[in-house]
Write a structure and sequence with these properties.
ARM-like, Leucine-rich Repeat Variant, HEAT repeat domain-containing protein, ARM-type_fold, about 0% strand, 2 domains, mainly alpha, disordered C terminus, 11 helices
């Protein structure tokens, strides 16, 4: 039998590096479980006292279970954080999770954060938007991508430009919207 949910959470929180291998091994093990116990623990972390706890909760929820069985319960949690959170590392993780979940219900939150003053948040929005535009692609989401494609930060602009190119594959009318604003 593998480690408990609590043990995996403690291991992830012990690794202070947000990209640390121990942290991500523990997160991957939690995501693979894909069960209600893990969902409940991750949701609880999203209300944690520290940004590290909230980021961990979001990172778990973003890819929990191979078929994302808790998406309907996860989207409201992430949308709440998107609207109420001040910490940019949490907002970035929320946006990446939205992108992984590929759910158009996240679109209003991502559009709102696409104008954030912090580059890491706009980068997260540029990553998320192409994944949640819907089919046919939402024109307001495409407008946000166009705005991000002109961002002064090169990485943000590159991701948004890629997103526009990917959105062009959704439908011919999307291509016209992107090319002829």
């Amino acid at each position: 039998m593998g480690a408990s949910v609590d043990d995996l959470i403690r291991a992830a929180l012990a690794d202070r590096d947000p990209d640390g291998p121990s942290r991500w091994r523990a997160i991957a093990a939690l995501q693979e479980r894909g069960d209600l116990e893990t969902f409940t623990a991750a949701r609880r972390l999203c209300a944690g006292a520290t940004a590290a706890e909230r980021v961990l909760g979001v990172d778990i929820l973003g890819e929990l279970g191979c078929d994302r069985p808790y998406t309907d319960k996860t989207i409201p949690v992430l949308r709440y954080l998107a609207a109420s959170e001040d910490d940019t590392s949490v907002l970035y993780s929320v946006l990446i999770a939205f992108g992984h979940l590929r759910d158009p219900r996240a679109l209003p939150s991502v559009i709102e954060l696409s104008t954030h003053p912090e580059v890491t948040v706009r980068y997260g929005a540029a990553y998320a938007l192409p994944n949640i535009l819907g089919r046919p692609a939402d024109p307001t989401g495409l407008a946000a991508l166009r705005r991000l494609a002109a961002d002064p930060d090169e990485d943000v602009a590159d991701w948004a430009s890629l997103g526009i190119a990917l959105a062009g594959g959704h439908a011919d009318d999307v291509r016209r919207q992107v090319l002829d604003p």
